[in-house]
Amino acid sequence: MSVSHDFKVFSGNSNRALAERICEYLKRPVSKADVGRFSDGEIQVEIGENVRGFDVFVIQSTCPPGNDHLMELLIMCDALKRASAASITAVIPYYGYSRQDRKVAARTPITAKLVADLLATAGTTRVVSMDMHAGQIQGFFNIPTDHLYASPVFLEDLRRKFPSADDLVIVSPDAGGVERARAYSKRLNCPLAIIDKRRPRPNASEVMNLIGDVKGKSAIIVDDIIDTGGTLAQGAAALMEKGAKEVLAYIVHPILSGPAITRITESALTELVVSDTVPLSKSAQDCRKIRQIGTERLFGEAIARIYRAESLSSLFV
Asked: Any idea which residues carry the catalytic annotation?
């Protein structure tokens, strides 16, 4: 698609490949910005072209190393604000620090809100993100926020892989993901199952029970984040024990830290499908069970519609 050239798209260092694919969809180059480091490790940013009066978009996932990539985004937004950009939209495919979205114990932070405040203070006038950890995070922003979902590209892939949904069952890996799983099952017209999980401590989980019938079916686990892979590996094993024919997973953000690759390789999973909101490590790229699909059309269309002041509602389905 072709649009006029009154807006510019910049990229930090977190996911340059996705930014380039988005700009290819928009038929324009990534605008020039030098995002480097001083000798002591502090982040240095210099915008390489005029942005005065332009609507600008900064594409930057706050994926690991999250602190570095978040600071890059904040400093880039500050630089663009001081260069008199008309508007600054932070396009954050993966919104980090989102798992601390409420007080679950005494004296704990709400980092999802903290990051929202930091972005606004840095000069961001709008935020676009995908599959935030919880829907209420949108309400943490005092600026317009567009919450996209990877479901359109995941559903397209599922329909291509399973032309008939007769033998499918969509599985939520925990109670918190039921709304997401229900949306998939409704659009595929197939049943829903829920894994009852307990989390005794961060990055650790225990499968307690399975709600629903998966016997003889292809079980599709859907979730927003895969970190260490423990929940997914345990869930796949539980589903196979209950008679599932095979287990696949469609998970948006592939953090894949610690022992995740080993767990996935050794798990009962047939395939793990992830989006490109977070770039895959070399070991993840080499894992035969992991397949990555692109989201550049969704983000590219969102950017174009925001610039043209058109509705984004059809992209939220």
From this structure: 197
